[in-house]
Amino acid sequence: QVHLTESGGGSVHTGGSLMLSCAASGDGYYRMGWFRQRPGAEREGVASIDKYGTRVYTDSVKGRFTISKDDGTNILYLDMQSLRPEDTAMYYCAADREWRYSLRVEAYTYWGQGTQVTVSS
Length: 121
Fold this sequence. Notes:
Elements (H helix, E strand, L loop, with lengths): L2 E5 L2 E4 L4 E8 L5 E7 L6 E6 L5 E3 L7 E6 L4 E6 L8 E8 L13 E2 L3 E6 L1
Parallel strand pairs: 2-11
Antiparallel strand pairs: 1-3, 3-8, 4-5, 4-9, 5-6, 7-8, 9-10, 9-11
């Protein structure tokens, strides 16, 4: 069993920055990702990192967000720069036993409870 706990959300103005963290306990997972869900919208993939450290991003965050992980402490990060009002959402950490990165919601087995990010203009 894998347990995920997100932290680091908050409220910032346009152009601000936040660093999200996801503490993972348990083992047997390889790919990890960050997802977000806006009110009234479906959950969408933001960034993913696979077993070998290969990263993928959704187009709207490329050049602004960076996903990384510390295998020693089992913490996943999402460094968010140049935030925009459209980045406002609940952000979720996810993990799965498969090794290859993915931005598909259905590709993940384990999910955290989420952390809210609000960007005001």
